[in-house]
Amino acid sequence: MTGFPPRSAVPPLDLLPGEIHIWSLRLDPPQPAVERLGRSLSPDEWERANRFRFDKHRRQYVVGRGALRGLVAAYTGVRPEAVRFRYGERGKPYLADPAGDLELNLSNSDEMALVGFVRGVEIGVDIEFRKPMPDCEQISERFFSASEREVLRALPAERKEEAFFNCWTRKEAYLKAVGTGLAVPLDSFDVTLAPGEAPRMLTLEGDAGRAARWFFRHFVPGEQYIGALAIEGAPPGGGDWRVEARELIL
Prior knowledge:
By secondary structure, the chain is of the alpha+beta class. The protein folds into 2 domains: about 5-100 and about 235-250, CATH 3.90.470.20; about 130-230, CATH 3.90.470.20. Helix content is about 30%, strand content about 25%. β5 (about 100-110) and β6 form a beta hairpin. α1 crosses α3 (about 55-75). The two termini are about 20 Å apart.
């Protein structure tokens, strides 16, 4: 999916059952926007922000967290500074206060982030900046499954890096959906990766039936960026998930 129409997080934002909203945002807005977003952060978020060694990373964290708070506020009707989070064992964020059945996930890479929202099911998103990866085949030997490595080796040289990032983002999105991080080996499940091939999981611990329950979507949220979404199961009432991608105006 390419093309993220710009939109501001003006409340109320409606998210119906069966819909998935994906927001892209730049992490390098003008300084007034950085300061405005920073005013909504909690003391513990500022404590973490101030642990970053470099100003760039501190600014990226502040913008990402402030934008997340603004989006949650627009969906729930609370003030951005009043949003409270709790975290799973591996750091996956959830809303601490009852907010219907709103689930969320976020990811950032370089100067861009993705935030995903859905109701009633776990969601995982990942974004990666497509930096040059001349050693992508060597890295795949450490992390990809045997079948994924075979597909990567068979591709023309000019398609290998794109395929590598396709595979990596889909795997990361799945791990973020289940909330385990790298505690689950990346080679314990297989995903598609060839450029142009529909994103999906092929096997999960050798089981094609379990893999078929997972829904994936591929994104190109910006030049030199690749993103992915993973959700388990079908939407309420069956049918297909309806995915809306938007660029957040800060």
